[in-house]
Specification:
The chain is an alpha+beta fold and 798 residues long. Helices cover 47% and strands 20% of the residues. The chain has 27 helices and 29 strands. Strands 17-29-28-27-18-25-26 form a seven-stranded mixed sheet, sandwiched between helices. A six-stranded antiparallel sheet has the order 9-8-10-16-11-14, with no helix packed on it. Strands 19-24-23-22-21-20 form a six-stranded antiparallel sheet. α7 runs antiparallel to α8. The protein is elongated.
Length: 798
């Protein structure tokens, strides 16, 4: 594993990115570094790499002391070529995602959002606290991206354009540092405890009294590295908070650690009564345990989110015009090219199979673990796995236009939204920190007059015990676990409010065609009227073979007969000649003539096949109901949801589907405007869920409090939906509702636990009944309770 030539970070083995500098190919860790390097070289500033004193790692600095190399790099983000690689243009506005380093709690996110929104050109700022990803929408001609990132640096944080690999590398670097700090704090705790025990023994320690000064200085020597390295993140955040005049949980933590250390140092040199070097190390250790687990959870969530990105191969086999094969980088493949996918390989692009058949594993995208059989003319999705046989596909979408990229962009959109309960927790944590500081002043003042020797240590316990770590972790950990579990099972949440709103829902409204049904006409029943030598279905299939009408797909028969004189009669049917006999297939009035009076068996959708003399057969066409649709409706009804059917279809098939599935309330022949009007008439307290798939459903999907689109829906419908059933399985709907209720319960449990713990431990600490080291253990334990309780959402309800 080599280091990135631009930033000096380690380059993962699966990354194959380079940039040409001084005539040589240099390895890059991510596309961000590659874009910046290419821009530097193309602008004639290649000497930047020749004269820099070190690699362009980002040290701890603020805007006032930015190194010239970093200033130059930030300016390059305004280069149109670089900006095009890291941001998406939306008219006059740009959208990008930054990965932020140095965030410790919800208050940090609040600070960044509020500061950046002060810029005139910034339209929207949203921080994902669990992933440390910052989503920004701004006008580049009003406020440059370099100014935005510079402002983030001035607040004491570090920022860089987000790429999956760069984000994972940053998380892994954080994890490595966290382990190092944790190990040092653990060793320091053990060694400091070893020298503290003789001091606690006091008068009955005998010979140990002679070595009291030695034990104290030994504890000082052991604790100082813990303070300087292990506890450094707390003090860095504390200084940042002082500069920005903003409270985070690092303020009471830093006061507690720093105060205990300085008091112990003072006591060591002045021969005071007490030193608490062991408590300082122990407190730091337990705090870091909580931070380590939080970082580890973010790393695992990041790995889960980037799993889709990492599926994509970097090269594939292209079939050339002369039939030869060539292994080319994926960025050299264009739409319309034909590529070959061998067994065991990941499909590199969305496409249509033009040769061969195989089983395709789409589990990573749809959540379905059984491979699907695909053959010529079937579509395949980028990121899925070819299991059995080689296939050739014609590329229909690449890069950002593939379904997998659409899924990731929708996931990012969901991550930007904060539910009201998450916003409440963030606000509550800020006020809680202020309350803790005020209470600490009161406790110190009170105990100073009661017992001045104990005042400091009791105040220290108050600061430690009431640190609102659990309060800040209560909501984001639960939401992240819940949405990750749903995504793994083919339910993609694209809006942050979904889980909160679903638990309030009392009504779910379904579209029919393509939602409750498969959207594909099939022959439900055949009535043979006149016996002929040839199978009527074979005659009908031979005529419909030449038609592109959706009805034609219902007639499948092999082999087809040779037909001539095929004529399409719009809205009526087809006519043609087979074996010198003219046939007609279509509605009753179309096949009727002076010899034939065709009357359909009933009002359902019957199609007649006739020759010049008689009706040969009637075919009943219907849209097949989705598998498990009836079980889904039954399960939703048991969850006290009122199921309704709202369809644009004017046929009797609407009532047939409703009666089959057990839906009592249904309406047919409803226009898109009619669906909007119907939704508007419903009681807003009974939050409605709308499930649809077609373009005609887009207006009502956009208007509904919660909208759900089937995975096979139109792209426009999926874009306006809050939830997408990627695997087309309606059975996931009851699980989604149950998961929403379970998530709400766990969030309430987490918040209740955090508030109960902090409110109950405060009196104990204020009364001097809780020593600092027990306060540190309790605070870390409360955070772990919240995290482990949230992890219960990793599995969906049955």
């Amino acid at each position: 594993m080599n280091n990135c030539y631009h930033c000096g970070q380690a380059v993962a083995e699966n990354i194959d990115l380079t940039a040409r500098v001084f005539g040589e190919e240099r390895r890059m860790c991510c596309v961000g570094c590659q874009a910046v390097t290419n821009a530097i070289v193309q602008s004639g500033s290649e000497s930047f790499y020749q004269y820099r004193s070190d690699t362009n790692t980002t040290p701890d600095f603020t805007l006032d002391n930015l190194p010239a190399t970093v200033r130059q790099e930030l300016t390059l983000f305004d280069n149109p070529d670089v900006l095009g690689d890291i941001a998406t243009a939306r008219g006059e506005q740009f959208e990008t995602v930054l990965i932020i380093d140095g965030i410790t709690c919800a208050a940090c996110g609040w600070l960044i959002e509020k500061q950046l929104m002060r810029f005139e050109g910034v339209k929207a700022v949203q921080l994902n606290l669990s992933q440390h990803k910052l989503y920004i929408t701004w006008q580049q001609d009003v406020t440059a991206l370099s100014d935005i990132i510079s402002r983030i640096y001035s607040l004491g944080f570090k920022a860089q354009p987000y790429t999956p690999d760069a984000a994972q590398q940053q998380l892994q670097a954080e994890q490595k540092k966290a382990i190092q700090r944790l190990v040092l704090a653990a060793l320091g705790t053990m060694q400091a405890m070893m020298f503290a025990v003789p001091l606690y023994a006091d008068d009955w320690a005998g010979i140990f009294i002679k070595f009291e000064t030695y034990f104290r200085f030994a504890g000082l020597a052991i604790t100082t590295p813990v303070i300087l390295y292990s506890a450094r993140p707390f003090f860095t955040a504390f200084i940042r908070d002082l500069k920005t005049r903003h409270l985070t949980m690092d303020v009471p933590v830093s006061i507690a650690i720093g105060g205990a250390y300085l008091a112990s140092v003072y006591s060591t040199f002045t021969h005071g009564e007490e030193v608490y070097f062991d408590s300082v190390c122990m407190f730091t250790f337990f705090l870091l345990v909580g931070r380590f687990l939080e970082t580890r959870a973010r790393l695992r969530n990041g790995e889960a989110g980037n799993e889709l990105h990492n599926l994509m191969p970097r090269a594939c086999v292209k079939i050339l015009d002369n039939g030869d094969e060539a292994l080319l980088p994926i960025n050299q493949i264009n739409i319309g090219d034909c590529i070959r996918i061998v067994p065991g390989s990941t499909i590199a692009a969305d496409g249509i199979i033009v040769n061969g058949s195989s089983s395709i594993d789409e589990s990573i995208i749809t959540g379905e673990f059984i491979p699907l059989h695909k053959q010529v003319n079937d579509t395949v999705i980028a990121g899925s796995l070819n299991v059995e046989n080689p296939i050739d596909i014609r590329v229909t979408a690449m890069g950002k236009d593939t379904q997998i990229s659409t899924i990731m962009s929708l996931l990012d959109r969901a991550a930007q939204d904060k539910p009201k309960i998450a916003q409440l927790a963030d606000t509550l944590a800020q006020y809680f920190v202020a309350g803790v500081l005020i209470m600490s002043v009161i406790v110190f003042t009170t105990w100073y007059f009661i017992d001045s020797d104990r005042a400091f240590w009791i105040t220290l316990s108050v600061l430690v015990a009431t640190c609102p770590c659990a309060l800040s972790l209560a909501t984001p950990t639960a939401l992240t676990a819940a949405t990750t579990a749903l995504r793994r099972n083919g339910v993609l949440i694209t809006r942050g409010h979904v889980l909160e709103t679903l638990r309030k829902s009392r009504r779910i409204i379904f579209d029919k065609t393509g939602t409750l049904t498969l959207g594909q006409l099939t022959i439900e029943e055949t009535i043979i009227v006149s016996e002929v030598n040839t199978n009527p279905l074979q005659i009908a299939a031979s005529l419909e073979h030449f038609s592109q009408h959706p009805i034609a797909h219902a007639f499948q028969y092999e082999p087809i007969l040779k037909a001539s004189g095929i004529h399409n009669h719009a809205g009526e049917g087809l006519s043609g000649i087979i074996n010198n006999i003219e046939y007609k297939i279509g509605i009753a009035s179309f096949v009727s003539n002076e010899h034939i009076n065709a009357i359909a068996p009933d009002k359902r959708h019957w199609v007649a096949l006739a020759d010049n003399k008689q009706v040969l057969a009637w075919f009943l066409l219907s849209d097949e109901i989705r598998p498990n649709a009836k079980n889904t409706i039954s399960a939703l009804s048991q969850l006290t949801l009122e199921c309704e059917l709202l369809s644009g279809d004017q046929s009797t098939h609407v009532s047939h589907v409703a009666n089959t599935l057990g839906i009592n309330k249904y309406h047919g022949g409803v226009s898109p405007q009619g669906k909007l009007d119907y939704l508007a008439k419903q009681d807003p307290n009974d939050v409605s869920i709308m499930v649809g798939d077609g373009i005609n459903d887009v207006p009502v999907l956009a208007q509904a409090p919660v909208s759900i689109a089937i995975g096979s829906a139109s792209d426009l419908a999926k874009t306006h939906a809050d939830v997408i059933l990627v695997n087309n399985q309606l059975t996931r709907l009851p699980q989604l509702i149950k998961q929403a209720h379970k998530t709400a319960r766990i969030i309430k449990q987490n918040l209740a636990w955090a508030l109960l713990y902090n409110s109950s431990v405060l009196p104990l600490a204020a009364l001097g009944l809780l020593p600092p080291y027990l306060a540190a253990i309790g605070m870390s334990a409360s955070s772990l309770v919240v995290v482990f309780n949230a992890l219960r959402l990793n599995k969906l309800p049955k």
